Task: inverse folding
């Protein structure tokens, strides 16, 4: 599509940068906060840009402002202006702003928090806002740049990217096993106390399906927060169906029946196409990927398996010495 400015009018670089901010944020108010302007000024700048280009650059969508075809074309020019300005001060911090993330509790603490620390070392003016939630991907992303969900999402007008898999296993505290014995098969778990999500409130099919090996167990402590699952299991409330990357950090927890209960669930990243034009968002996504690469063994429970194997080898050696 060709852009045809009105006679004698040229798009203002400042107005193009305003369009870029609105496209990334989806809202005038968020763009205004980022640019240090007010809502009225944002609206006036967008109006001036539309006058210069001879058409609408934004249309109101269900989740905020979205680009029209003319706006999509103008964004390329806006990004060129942004790059040109950035090249004038190559030694200054180039990234600033807020990344808004909705993610599960475990991902937020174990992956997202260390990732933003890595970003802020290079770009201290970047910050992260986290809405911790375990839910399906929203069809309309309002107020967030990125969502991380469990299970493959089915979304429209959004990008969905597989990030990683993680393992769920069955755990119990050593004190609980001392009192109740250690099960040797899933058949022995019938009627036993389970620590997991509140079944009636669970919106994520993948997490509900992961409960299949424990269907005959009885809910003892249920919560929407996975950190409550870990703490309740450590306290001896019952057997916890827990993410390995959270449970394996605690020496007082023992993984049970790993060959029979080893559910692998996927983390998916969902984002608006406009968010992928935002340098701060792209930097954060790269930091997420780097963090995931660094902890892949922990996500899948492999580090625990290595420690367990080593412990068993040591125990066997000591037994042999005693018998010898």
Result:
């Amino acid at each position: 599509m060709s852009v045809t400015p009105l006679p004698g009018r040229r798009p203002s670089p400042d107005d193009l940068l305003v369009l870029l901010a609105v496209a990334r944020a989806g809202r005038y108010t968020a763009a205004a906060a980022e640019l240090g302007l007010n809502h009225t000024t944002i609206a006036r700048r967008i109006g001036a840009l539309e006058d210069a280009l001879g058409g609408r650059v934004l249309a109101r969508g269900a989740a905020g402002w979205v680009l029209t075809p003319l706006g999509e074309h103008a964004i390329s020019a806006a990004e060129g202006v942004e790059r040109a300005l950035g090249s004038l001060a190559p030694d200054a911090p180039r990234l600033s702003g807020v990344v808004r993330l909705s993610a599960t509790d475990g991902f937020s603490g174990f992956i997202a928090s260390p990732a933003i620390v890595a970003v802020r070392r290079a770009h201290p003016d970047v910050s992260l806002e986290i809405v911790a939630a375990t839910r399906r991907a929203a069809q309309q992303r309002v107020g967030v740049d990125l969502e991380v969900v469990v299970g493959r999402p089915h979304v429209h007008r959004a990008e969905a990217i597989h990030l990683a898999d993680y393992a769920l296993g069955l755990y119990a505290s050593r004190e609980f096993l001392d009192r109740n014995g250690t099960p040797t098969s899933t058949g022995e778990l019938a009627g036993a106390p389970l620590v997991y999500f509140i079944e009636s409130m669970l919106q994520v099919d993948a997490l509900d399906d992961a409960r299949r090996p424990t269907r005959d167990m009885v809910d003892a402590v249920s919560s929407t927060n996975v950190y409550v699952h870990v703490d309740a299991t450590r306290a001896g409330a019952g057997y916890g169906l827990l993410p390995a990357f959270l449970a394996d950090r605690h020496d007082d927890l023992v993984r049970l029946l790993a060959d029979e209960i080893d559910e692998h669930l996927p983390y998916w990243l969902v984002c608006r196409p406009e968010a992928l034009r935002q340098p701060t968002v792209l930097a954060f996504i790269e930091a997420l990927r780097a963090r995931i690469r660094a902890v892949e063994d922990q996500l899948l429970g492999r580090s625990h398996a290595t420690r367990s194997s080593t412990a068993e080898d040591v125990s066997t050696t000591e037994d042999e010495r005693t018998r010898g």
Remarks:
- The first strand starts at residue 58 and ends at 61.
- The mean pLDDT is 84.
- The chain has two domains: 13-87, 95-316.
- The two ends are 85 Å apart (CA to CA).
